[in-house]
Amino acid sequence: MGHMHVDITVRGSKAVVELRDVLVDTGATYTVLPEKVLSEVVAWGPIQDLEVELGNGTSVRAKAYGVAIRIEGVEALSTGITFEGGQPVIGVETLESIGLKLVPTTGKLEFTRPKGVAYFY
Q1: What is the arithmetic mean of pLDDT over 59-72?
Q2: Among 27, 88, 92, 97, which residue has the fewest nearby CB atoms (within 10 Å)?
Q3: d(CA 58, CA 104)
């Protein structure tokens, strides 16, 4: 299977930005977004500063924001993080919030439940 890319919409309290061909990374917990996008949409936060371990084992300081992300017609709240040098990536937290999974045999996203916000109890 190769790399999976999707088009997304990022919404904050004041604006909406569309991003094309964003990498889906099932090894990433959070969605990484450019600080410029978070600022433009007026994302909620920063909610928290945190240390994030990257895939290559190095750690970076990141800022976490609240955003709404839409993929394949479904929107959900998500955590968007930003750090110096970070490239846009969709993480597992966003996929699960929307109800999507990556199917390794097809390399496509598939819904795990009816479209809509998940309710956990």
Answers
A1: 96
A2: 27
A3: 27
